[in-house]
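This part of the workshop introduces the protein records we will be handling. Each record describes a single protein and holds just a pair of labelled lines. Instead of coordinates, the fold is spelled out as a row of discrete tokens. To make this concrete, we reproduce a full record directly below:
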Amino acid sequence: MVQQEYALHDVVEMKKPHPCKNNSWEIIRMGMDIRIKCLKCGQMVLMPRREFEKKLKKVLVKAEQPAE
């Protein structure tokens, strides 16, 4: 299985939609745990990185990387 590349502030799609019927989430914290925020209702979810990678479907929008 190919691991998808994701970074802070990317917008991702998960395999199951949120109860508010939205499936777009923004990554707002990365570390051992990953916190994502629903872009429709603002609900935040914290989950272990391993669980996040299992539930991740695809990256919808890559965050703008600052120019070096």
Q: What stands out?
A: Residues 33 and 49 are 5 Å apart (CA to CA).
